[in-house]
């Protein structure tokens, strides 16, 4: 059983046939993905990445560099070797997942059977957005409100926002500073983009094609940058399709091996 604090498993499975690892966007947490557990196949175990500075790890110092995030994840690298798996990340989460996939590939550990990048420019592209993590408190909070990723009840509560600002600043520092090397991963990639997303252009979505040794498919979903919340049922449908595709392919391979 997985017990590392960086992983939250809402509904552990005794012998899962597939794991879906979900990576949070900047300023977000694993709570975005909890409803998914009721929508996926019973053979699938949902594993939610829980970074320090939020949820059960709220008292811990947040990572403000991609390298330290990946280092903590790699301390638990055995979880990526025992059961087939898929990566899903939204925005910054996609880029964390990509950097982890590259590192696992370098270590000779089996790659994700599918990689789903949601609401994110390809990670080898530089950010077009100005850095906000260093802004004075009032300006920083204003920018967070414009981005629509932080709940309004948090932004409007002075005690709550003071509590979460260190983690938010750390997230946005990573989001701005990190830029991947253009190393194609072994996984096929499904790229999800918002039709009305003004933060990520279509060309930035297409650039994910440079990062896979296999097929890359681009799918547009109604909504802006946070379509993952606005149209979560559509996102879950896309994820469920990939999950069932992978499970079917794995089952067919198993049958082929028997015969």
Automatic annotation (TrEMBL):
Record's protein name: Thioesterase
Domain Thioesterase: 19-239
Family annotation (Pfam families): Thioesterase
Gene3D superfamilies: alpha/beta hydrolase
Domain of life where this protein originates: Bacteria
Family note: Belongs to the thioesterase family.
GO terms, biological process: lipid biosynthetic process
PANTHER family xref list: S-ACYL FATTY ACID SYNTHASE THIOESTERASE, MEDIUM CHAIN, THIOESTERASE
InterPro entries per UniProt: AB_hydrolase_fold, TEII, Thioesterase
């Amino acid at each position: 059983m997985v017990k590392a604090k960086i992983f939250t498993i809402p509904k552990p499975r005794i012998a899962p046939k597939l794991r879906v690892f979900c990576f949070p966007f900047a300023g977000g947490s694993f709570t975005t993905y909890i409803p998914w557990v009721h929508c996926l196949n019973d053979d699938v175990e949902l594993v939610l990445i829980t970074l320090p500075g939020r949820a059960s790890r709220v008292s811990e110092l947040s990572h403000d560099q991609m390298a330290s995030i990946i280092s903590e994840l790699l301390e638990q690298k055995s979880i990526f070797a025992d059961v087939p798996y898929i990566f899903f990340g939204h925005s910054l989460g996609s880029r964390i997942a990509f950097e982890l996939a590259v590192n696992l590939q370098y270590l000779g550990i089996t790659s994700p059977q599918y990689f789903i990048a949601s609401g994110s420019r390809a990670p080898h592209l530089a950010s077009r957005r100005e850095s906000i993590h260093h802004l004075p408190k009032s300006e920083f909070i204003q920018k967070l409100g414009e981005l629509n990723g932080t709940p309004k009840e948090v932004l409007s509560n002075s005690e709550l926002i003071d509590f979460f600002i260190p983690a938010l600043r750390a997230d946005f520092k990573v989001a701005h500073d990190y830029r991947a090397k253009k190393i194609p991963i072994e996984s096929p990639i499904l790229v999800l983009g918002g039709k009305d997303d003004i933060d990520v252009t279509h060309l930035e979505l297409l650039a994910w094609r440079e990062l896979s040794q296999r097929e890359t498919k681009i799918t547009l979903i109604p909504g802006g940058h946070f379509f993952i919340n606005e149209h979560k049922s559509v996102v879950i449908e896309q994820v469920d399709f990939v999950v069932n595709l992978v499970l079917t392919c794995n089952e067919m391979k198993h049958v082929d091996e028997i015969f």
